[in-house]
Amino acid sequence: MKDKLLYEGKAKQVFTVEGNPELLILSYKNDATAFNGEKKAKFQGKGRYNNLISAKVFDYLHQHGVKSHFKEALNETEQLVEKTTIIPLEVVVRNVAAGSIVRRTGIKEKTIFNPPLVEFFYKKDELGDPLINDEHALLLTDATESDLQQLKEMARQVNEYLQAFFKEINLQLVDFKLEFGRNAHGDIILSDEVSPDTCRLWDIATGEKMDKDVFREDLGDLVTVYDHILTRLEAKQ
To answer: What's the first-to-final CA gap in the chain, in angstroms?
Structure first.
């Protein structure tokens, strides 16, 4: 089924599917990066956790009517997905102040955002994926004003579902990053991954960080933390 390597990013390899140009296979790597690739490491088993956790998230979102590129997990490290043309915007939803917004604005960490904040970052590695506004997005991408509004609405909807999803396993969804793409019909659908690499998660009882911040801030063993998340998800089924 897996054919040619189409693209390799920081966390995944993307392969074409033999005989079906509308499908792709995402292969999750064991690599971890932070600070726009300045900090790098490999963790044995990390790709498996991101693949399996992301698959469970997409299954949950599908059950609630959210359209995405996800089809199925093929094995422990690979997913079958619908091919999309990625819109070069990272859509970040913030429920609680943490990370870059604290450094950028001086807003006190753990400040609750009600309603949640939605931010756009331009996907451009050589520029460090800068924060941009709607006017910038219209200039830099092929997205229309209607598209931008749709991205915000979809991101807010996903946020509601994911807050409930993670709360079931005693995790607070602090913030997260989404990517969207257009499929062969031109529909905008959720793409990429939703995992502890792309979400900031805090244990509700202890406040412990349960995401890639463990690697960013040298707080402990990343794989152990990701294993705790997957174990909780499997236990609630």
So the answer is: 30
Residue 201 to residue 165: CA distance in whole angstroms: 12
pLDDT of residue 38: 81
Quick one: how far is CA 237 from the chain centroid? Answer: 22
Fill in the DSSP letter of residue 208.
Answer: -
Strand-pair partners of 42 = 31
3-state SS assignment for residue 35:
coil
pLDDT digits (tens, 9 = 90+) for 178-235: 999 999 999 999 999 999 999 999 999 999 999 999 999 999 999 999 999 999 999 9
Q: Does position 1 have pLDDT exceeding 90, yes or no?
A: no
Task: Tell me how far apart the alpha carbons of residues 141 and 150 are, in angstroms, rounded to a whole number.
Answer: 15
- 192, 82 in Cβ contact below 8 A? no
Question: Do 236 and 168 contact (CB within 8 A), yes or no?
Answer: yes
* Lookup: tokens for 195: 């995992």
Nearest to 37 by CA among 209, 200, 215: 215
- The rounded distance, in Å, linking the Cα atoms of 119 and 190 is 16
Task: Record the pTM.
Answer: 0.96
Q: Which of 11-20, 36-45, 118-127, 194-203 shows the lowest mean pLDDT across its residues?
A: 36-45
CB atoms within 10 A of CB 37: 11
